[in-house]
Amino acid sequence: MGLFDTLEASNLEDAKPLAARMRPRSLAEFAGQKHFLGDGKLLRRILEADRLSSVIFYGPPGCGKTSLAELIASQTKSVFARLNAASAGVKEVRALLEQARDRLAADGTRTLLFVDELHHFNRTQQDVLLPDVESGVVRLIGATTENPFFSLVSPLVSRSQVFEFQPVSTDEVLAVLRRALTDRERGLGALGVSATDDALAFLAEVSDGDVRRALTALEIGAHSVQRGEIDLQVAQESIQKKAIRYDDDTHYDAASALIKSMRGSDPDATVYWLARMLEAGEDPRFLARRIVIAAAEDVGNADPQALVVANAAAQATLFIGMPECRIILSQAATYVALAPKSNAAYVAIDEALDDVRQRRVLPVPTHLKDSHYGGAKRLGHGEGYQYAHSSEDGWVDQDYLGIDRSYYRPVERGFESELKVRLDGFRQRRSNSAGESDD
Fold it and tell me: Which of 137, 139, 135 is nearest to 47 (CA)?
């Protein structure tokens, strides 16, 4: 390498942000993902044996997907090729695969293909990869922030091992920040800056497991104090407003957590998931609908007032909107969370629907048929019907279904325990009446 080449390489290296310069150079420096990269874990064993097949790295930004791919590239015996799916087209993909086939045929050298943001490839582009991935011409490392089971074609997923990356823990982010602060070769050590423990702890915590975000904030803080100290105030000013990850996958996960927290009678968890979704920009009308559904599905007749509260909150949300409707949604969600629970009405309608769909459809008993039209009397419709209000206690012994079937089974919680007493009484009276008629 000539003098000018060296100078150019140095300038390009200096221009890199701190997060790029501090990428790990070995597995020992890699932060996080111990569940598959720890000693004796699957991916660690695969890498040590140099037996990597096609893999998909899936997880939130800043958790090490690209860093691990580059680390694998530095240690593999294969030729490393890289594409960004957001900017690459089918023509580029085909050309790269053709080169890989020629290389393998000529001297047996295999190609390791890293495709960043793989979910940006459309179905056609993903299908182009399939034959060469399946035949082993290339070993694919795909990185994506989207759930591959939703965003990638099934044949590509089935030919790859999927490794789900988790946000890096606060302690591990803190260790990376401390290393960057003292590293004179790649980090900020040459600047002569320091940082207080609470400043570093703040950056590690607020970064939400995104190492890139934490390092970017540290670099901004370091350049702003100029050989001084990064305190908590500087740290707070150096990091932008938290951008909450909220794609389709996260939307469904957070909604599931909200629903299950209300069902599980945990108002604190309920409010947290509600707040997270609102802060991420979720439509409050969607949240209102979920609360109304939970009031009927999970509370039901154990506290009928829950549905009244939830429906009122839904109407008020439409009328008021954000940001004030957050208060209304919180009130309704916490009420539902703390209400006694019963899914008896929910189970009853689903069992009845299953009978309608799977069994013979029951005819309407003749005495229950409409008798308010000309000719109904000649057909016998309504004959024998007993008007319940004509009875002193508002109840008559009458068959309303035509067969013996029990769908609604109230539980002994909340108001539904009163309904259970009533229902048990009605059923007992019917049973007694049936016994008397048999005699």
Answer: 139
Number of domains in the chain: 4
The reply to whether 343 falls in a domain is: no
Strands 194-195 and 111-116: unpaired
Contact assessment for residue 129 and residue 158, using Cβ atoms and an 8 Å cutoff:
no
Shared domain check, 252 and 288: yes
- Give residue 320's domain range: 248-338
d(CA 104, CA 361): 66
Q: Are 145 and 109 in contact (CB under 8 A)?
A: no
Whether residue 243 contacts residue 281, with contact meaning beta carbons closer than 8 Å, is answered with: no
Helix (H) or strand (E) holding 221: helix 211-225
Residues 297, 331 within the same domain: yes
- Residue of 237, 189, 239 whose CA lies nearest to 213: 239
β-bridge partners, 164: 58
**115 in Cβ contact with 141 (< 8 Å):** yes
30: Cα within 13 Å, side-chain hemisphere: 23
Kindly provide the b/e burial profile for residues 188-225, where b requires at least 16 CB atoms within 10 angstroms of the residue's own CB.
beebebbbeeebbbbbbebbbbbbbbbbbbbbbbbeeb
Per DSSP, 261 falls in state: H
- For residue 216 the two structure tokens come to 């970017």
Query: How far apart are the C-alpha atoms of 295 and 343, rounded to whole Å?
Result: 10
- 387 and 323, same structural domain? no
Q: What are the structure tokens assigned to 405, written together?
A: 């079937």
CA distances from 220 to 31, 70, 179 (A): 22, 25, 16
CB burial of 388-426 (b: ≥16 within 10 Å; e: otherwise) equals eeeeeeeeeebeeeeeeeebbebbebbbbeebbeeeeee
| Shared-domain flag, residues 123 and 63 | yes
- The answer to whether the CB of 55 falls within 8 A of the CB of 156 is no
CA distances in angstroms from 65 to 36, 339, 395, listed in the order given: 13, 43, 69
- Final residue belonging to a domain, choices 131, 164, 197: 164
Partners of 139 in beta bridges: 112
In sequence order, what E strands does 128-225 have? 138-144, 161-164, 194-195
- Same domain for 214 and 268: no
Q: Give the pTM.
A: 0.66
Q: Do 37 and 160 belong together in one domain?
A: yes
pLDDT averages per 10-residue partition of the chain, 439 residues: 54 76 89 90 86 88 89 82 89 91 88 91 90 89 90 90 92 94 90 92 90 93 86 86 67 93 97 94 93 97 97 95 94 98 97 94 90 83 90 89 92 95 90 65
